[in-house]
Amino acid sequence: MIDTKEFYDALLLRQMDFFAGVPDSLLANLCACIKENAPSDKNIIAANEGNAVGIVCGYHIATGRYGVVYMQNSGEGNAVNPLLSIADEEVYGIPLLLVIGWRGEPGVKDEPQHKKQGKVTLALLEAMGIAYEVLQDDYAPQLDRAVTYMRDKSRPFAIVVRKGTFSPCSTATEDNGYPLSREEALACVLDNIGEDDFVVSTTGKTSREIFELREARGQSHAGDFLTVGGMGHTSSIALGMSLGTDKNVYCIDGDGSFLMHMGAFAVSADKAGANFKYILNDNGAHESVGGQPTVGLKIDVSAILRAVGFRHIRTAETPEQITEAMRELADVPLGALILYTHQGSREDLGRPTVSPAENKQAMMKKFGVKE
Ligand SMILES: Cc1ncc(C[n+]2csc(CCOP(=O)(O)OP(=O)(O)O)c2C)c(N)n1
Predict the structure, then answer these.
(1) What is the pLDDT of residues 8-46, one digit of tens each?
(2) Cα 263 to the chain's mean position, in Å?
């Protein structure tokens, strides 16, 4: 195991003191250490991993220094375009250090959504022509090689990080003061969704909690699409689904996910029918992966939704407010509900016991589609 603070100091020693990224559970200790030690203008928690690459490219051009982009390997997909079309040596040639958490590493048990990404993580880097090393306990020579490579070639270099590599490092979670937890708020939401309606819920603990709430209530999972991977695409899936049915489709999103592909909302609002219902759980954090902050509580989400075309927007932070807002949401077109909740989740929170493929099949059956 690597001492996280020592690794952070080793980056600084090599002039890498600027960070941008999207947090990851496998890198949670590193993300916490960066948050604790880097000034806030040198640790940019980006909306998505591609944005993070853009940010460190800009920083390099202005300073000549090498920025560090941290991400889960799921984020490789978001980063491919700016890596190939901006940073690549055949375009601008911008050195930067990628630190990639390797979920789904072959031979290591992980969730279904990480398996394929885990298998192709190194191959994707190879296909992009990005040199990489898997981080070892004796990492100093690796960082030296990375710096030499970036300096000599003016190209990105990647460090791939295995599960359990970094020693514990914690960061304070901000108490935002809202009375309900996400799970308590979700319970009130589900109380007000009919049996014939459909739910598309976001990546992370939201979907895990919805799954467990259904289990505890003895309810079917067939109406719930648990977006286990593809963070940020929940509202797009819900839009497509709502355009294929007359039933109500409730999208239950998180603020990190909302921010990740915010452009989608302008299109959703333009194309959505009356059956598209948007619910955002805003806790101001990437709570599922360690509570790193988002800008979710600094921005006026209602104003953003209103500006792109949502017409009936409510906010709620108590069970009574949620119930009242959900009753309205069921009937109005272009409706949205923003739930404000505090951080935290149950220690014993499980994971869906239904596979993604089974989830999809049950849902298509509920839609009456013959596969
Ligand atoms: C493309 C991508 N980047 C990062 C992740 C890791 N990840 C999983 S859940 C999550 C946080 C989601 O935050 P939010 O939507 O605010 O929901 P919360 O966990 O706060 O309920 C992150 C970053 C991922 N799954 N996919």
Answers:
(1) 999 999 999 999 999 999 999 999 999 999 999 999 999
(2) 15
Q: pLDDT under 50 in the chain at which residues?
A: none
Domain locations in the chain as residue ranges: 4-161, 182-367
Q: What share of the chain is helix, strand, coil (3-state, %, to 5)?
A: 45, 15, 35
CA of 204 to the centre of ligand 1 (A): 6
Q: Which CATH class is domain 4-161?
A: alpha beta
The CA distance from 340 to 317, in Å, is 5
288 lines ligand 1 (CB under 6 A): yes
* Residue 158: both structure tokens together: 């990647």
Q: Which of 49, 48, 36 is nearest to 96 (CA)?
A: 49
Would you say the pTM of this structure is higher than 0.70?
A: yes
* Nearest alpha-carbon partner for 78 in 299, 289, 263, 288: 263
Q: Which CATH class is domain 182-367?
A: alpha beta
Q: Is 43 helix (H, G, I), strand (E, B) or coil?
A: strand
Q: Which residues contact 184 (CB under 8 A, 6 or more apart)?
A: 319, 341
Q: Is the CB of 227 under 6 A from ligand 1?
A: no
Instruction: Check: CB of residue 69 under 8 Å from CB of residue 98.
Output: yes
Tokens of 133: 């090393």
Please identify, by atom number, the ligand 1 atom nearest to the C-alpha of residue 281: 21
